Amino acid sequence: MWWLFAPTQIGGSTRYVVTGGVSMEPRFHTGDLALVRPTSHYRVGDIAAYWSTLLHKVVLHRIHAINGNAYVFKGDNNNFLDPTHPTRAQLLGKLWLHVPSAGVWLNALHTPIVAAVICAVLATGLIFPLREQRRRRKRRRKGAPGSLRQGIPLVNTSSDQTVGHRIHFGAFLTASAIAAAVFVVVGLVAFTRPAGRSTAATTPYTQQVSFGYSASAPAGPVYPTGAIRTGDPIFTTLVHQLGVHVDYRFASPAAHGVAGTEEVLLELSSQTGWTRNLILTPPTRFTGDHTSTTVTLDIPRIQSLLGRVTSLTGMAGASYTMAISPRLHITGTVAGAPLNLRFAPVMNFELGGQQLIPQGAAAAPSSAGGASSSGLTATRAGGVGTQGMAPATVTVLGVSPRVSMLRWISVLGLLLSALAGAFLYLRRRSEPFEESVKIQSQYGHLIVPVVAGEDLGWPAVDVPTIKGLVKLAESGQRLILHSRSNDVDTYMVNDEGTVYRYQVRPNKVVWGEWTDAPLPVDEAVSQQAAEAA
Hints:
The chain is α+β, with helices and mostly antiparallel strands. It folds into four domains: about 1-110, Umud Fragment, subunit A; about 115-195 and about 405-430, no CATH class; about 205-390; about 435-530, no CATH class. Helices cover about 30% and strands about 40% of the residues. It is built from ten helices and 26 strands. Strands 9, 11, 12, 14, 15, 16 and 17 form a seven-stranded antiparallel sheet that branches. A six-stranded antiparallel sheet has the order 1-2-6-3-4-5. Strands 7, 8, 10, 13, 18 and 19 form a six-stranded antiparallel sheet that branches. Strand 24 (about 490-495) and strand 25 (about 500-505) form a beta hairpin. The longest helix has about 35 residues, at about 155-190. It is rod-shaped, with a radius of gyration of 46 Å.
């Protein structure tokens, strides 16, 4: 039963999920109870539970597809896929048992009123029998030992010691019951609270664009190999086609899935305020957190355009700047949180005389984070707000233990209290006790002491057990007459002229002997017959 049904909160492997909504109809309805257990293998079509970082709750849906280590879920009644794609480590288990409408009753147990009622019933059930035993013990003490003529049982020294043992056992049992009640209260407090609490957190991410360039030129004294790489000078008299490389990367330590579009522009500007934008590549769709693009600059064509501008404006000697600007639009999720970003870094070239001079990369900061640049690399950092889980605590007298620890303490404490109570109860039953004392304690409300009550002039019918005599008294609605003579306790019931009798002499018995085996008192009967003769 523990292996199958123990919940995860107390170390088991079964998670209890109360369903809500209509996403899994008609199989599941609001208020149903689903028991899920972890398994070694999940297949497409299995109904499984996972923790949704987007909804911040447990979701029970069907596995629609498996993409590597990511699982795609979909509700049977939904026409769309779940936006969160959990990994194998985030799966809580596969559906094992479905109990319709049982979740309503399970939720009711967590309400404060029901929890308080259960606690009160348990505490009353544990403590009330002990209080009843103390009440009977006090009533027995009121019948203090008197004369033999009054027929009240006399308790010798050994009997007093036995009563003392019972008093100690009662105290220990009471302590065990109180401890059990305390642990029940602790358990109700712990198990009606979530083990974790949501915490606001910021999940970081970075966007980075690295620029580079390359070209071919005639091999000679300026370019011995005929190849131009990033960092080499660019002389426009030798280089006519310049390839500019744009490498974009998105990174985050959390699980993420992004896609976007990239458009590359050439921005021409001068110190006079004139600008002109040319599209090098149109918006292109990409998927994933990395894309790389290479654009080609036709330097003679650009120089011809700038020459015409100079001729028309009459601004001879004006300097011009060329900027390669990739414009990126990124969408997706990071740690389950939606993402919608725009990033437009630039790489500047200054056209001075017969040389194209790289000026480095730059990126404007945004409200989501700051930007930095180093050489030909532009970086923008940001973060998205997400909900994390932290251990929940309960503050008691300035101490704040974890709820999960309180759950273990309540379970172990209740178990130890129950074991201690069971041990004390069994130990008490094995202790020898005086039978007459036990009879007075248990049936004292039916017993009336008399003087020489055994000599009523009618022959007595011996009953083998006190329980039999009690049944006769209760069936005839009569009292039990009790007297003691020569250390023999005689209990009698007069039923319309017939005297039923049970006799016992001072002796110690254990519980099983007293309840199951009658104690013959032949010697006492013979002695009384001799005295009568």
